[in-house]
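User: Just a sanity check before I run the rest of the batch. Below are the structure tokens for the first item. I only need the designed sequence back.
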């Protein structure tokens, strides 16, 4: 079992939401390229923020946290966090935005760090679902 979030709309998504989705998924994918043993929690967050800022978006809160059994102190994925990443750490990369009371948006993945790379624990498409 793993944590996962996606955004759904009833009817067509507004263009503003589509642009937000595009930026956040690009940021999420950039962040998923960073976790390697020896990198830091801040490295993951920095990759995400750099990517979304290039697309005209800014996020000020953390972009994820450690999850699992027996974490003595939660690890927050945020710029400046120098916690070193180690094999078998598990994270919920969660990107949420609430836009001027117009709409909310969230996309996330749970991943585990192996000896050499990150393993995403879910297989749901990273798309904006329009019902």
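Assistant: Here's the designed sequence for the first item:
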């Amino acid at each position: 079992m793993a944590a996962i979030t996606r955004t759904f709309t009833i009817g067509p998504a507004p263009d503003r939401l589509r642009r937000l989705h595009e930026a956040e998924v690009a940021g999420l994918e950039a962040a998923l390229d960073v976790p390697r043993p020896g990198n830091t929690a801040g490295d993951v967050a920095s990759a995400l923020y750099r990517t979304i800022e290039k697309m005209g978006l800014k996020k000020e809160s953390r972009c994820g946290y450690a999850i699992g059994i027996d974490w003595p102190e939660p690890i927050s994925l945020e710029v400046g966090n120098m916690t070193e990443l180690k094999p078998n750490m598990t994270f919920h990369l969660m990107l949420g935005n609430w836009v001027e009371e117009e709409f909310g948006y969230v996309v996330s993945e749970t991943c585990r760090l192996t000896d050499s790379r990150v393993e995403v624990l879910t297989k749901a498409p990273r798309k904006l679902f329009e019902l």
